[in-house]
């Protein structure tokens, strides 16, 4: 009985000691790797080795051997316990002809508490047949327009899948991309894409060309034109595409909702039906089933969506286009605050007008454009609905896009359209309106297919009969404040701002010619003060007092 009691006590004490040292468990497993393992490449010129192939001995203070995780990696290719992208232990390493000779691996073991131990091992890779060679492939990819102009900022995505290797993917953004170190025999898929600057090369003239194709007046004769015209990606060309592109031109859209800015297809692709390439799906990628070529060249053809005449700028050094000038004329005028007037715009030369587009920029605090009305000559052949040909996509910007494939005749000096303008401040029209060229090119298209560059020309403003000083705007003032003044003759002016105690806070002096001017009180002056600030403007013998509210 004494021996049994002693044995029970020993077991109890051992269990207690083991429990104590495993709570918490901070000791990593002790793993010993097989050294000098020699392997021979298979007939496929490669071999896969598992972590357990290198295991010699293993021990751990707490975790049973069957619950310890193993992992392996080539030495120097990472840190910490090796895992796959999904978090599982990396249990294999792969060797090919390029790895012949001495190699080193790291054999890892991890217990249930997350403690990890590691040992390094040497492995010798050999090949006996003499048929295997160290061989990697590369791919060079480029993109061009249908006119063979290079396209910059194209994104290339390449993925290589090898039967014995994890999938490898890489990407690059350039006119041409070079992908190297692709394992010989891999299946390679290459995709090109570009989805910026959707208005590049797109104008109302392209809408004219689509309309002429639909009406049968001038059918497309190149496959790329069909793809470029299919703006909504419906695999047809219709008036719905015109509607979508006009929304892009007018600024309703910042990008086409159903399409990308560019479409790409392999350059050597042959359309089964060139007369209508949209009837059959066309590839947007290149797949190489077994890549064994040292340097394969892959070229793509890029098609800019919406650009029917192919004038999109594809690289930074694109030559400037030469265009003839067409001048859009309107009468200059002085407008009083609250005054509404209708301003006709016209061309001085007669023309048969296919279409036009432009964007007018203005200060929305100074005026509003209530409406635009086209002349009867431009609406006689087709109905025009409100908002169909113009938009105000943001404050201070009006965009216009109109076209008619019948090309109505516009006599010299005849009104083209009418702007209804309401002044919110005293203003001179020529100082308040300008053509904005940054996004939408101001252009006019005539029946012979000529694209004319458009300019804006104001006639001489009428003389001001009486000097006037208008109230400051905006008021209350949250930034710079403008005081419009209309001078009947050249005048010296003084602008002063005071506090309620009469202390002068700001003074400016001006010497101005006859005409309408805007005196500005800098926002920095007003930002230092709060409450009511009296101001005074002296223009010759005329003195105007007012009060600024600075919240």
Brief characterization of the structure:
Helix content is 12%, strand content 44%.
- Our measurement of the CA-to-CA distance between the termini, rounded to an integer number of angstroms, reads 98 Å
Figure out the total of helices. Answer: 7
Largest sheet: 11 strands, mixed
Kindly name the structural category: mainly beta
- What is the 3D form? elongated
Query: Helical content, roughly?
Result: 10-25%
C-alpha-based Rg, rounded: 38 Å
Query: What portion of the residues fall into strands of 2 or more residues?
Result: 35-45%
Number of strands: 36
Overall mean pLDDT: 87
Low-confidence stretches: 1-17
Strand-helix topology:
Blueprint: H1 2-21, E1 30-33, E2 37-40, E3 46-50, E4 55-59, E5 69-74, E6 92-96, E7 101-110, E8 116-126, E9 136-144, E10 154-161, E11 168-174, E12 176-183, E13 186-193, H2 204-215, H3 223-229, H4 239-250, E14 262-266, E15 285-291, E16 295-304, E17 324-330, E18 334-335, E19 340-347, E20 351-362, E21 367-374, H5 376-379, E22 390-394, E23 397-403, E24 409-410, E25 415-423, E26 427-428, H6 429-432, E27 433-435, E28 443-446, E29 451-458, E30 468-469, E31 481-487, E32 491-498, E33 504-512, E34 515-521, H7 523-527, E35 531-539, E36 542-550
Parallel strand pairs: 2-8, 9-16, 17-29
Antiparallel strand pairs: 1-4, 3-6, 5-7, 7-8, 9-12, 10-11, 10-13, 13-15, 14-16, 17-19, 18-26, 19-25, 20-23, 20-24, 20-27, 20-28, 21-25, 22-23, 28-29, 30-31, 31-34, 32-33, 32-35, 35-36
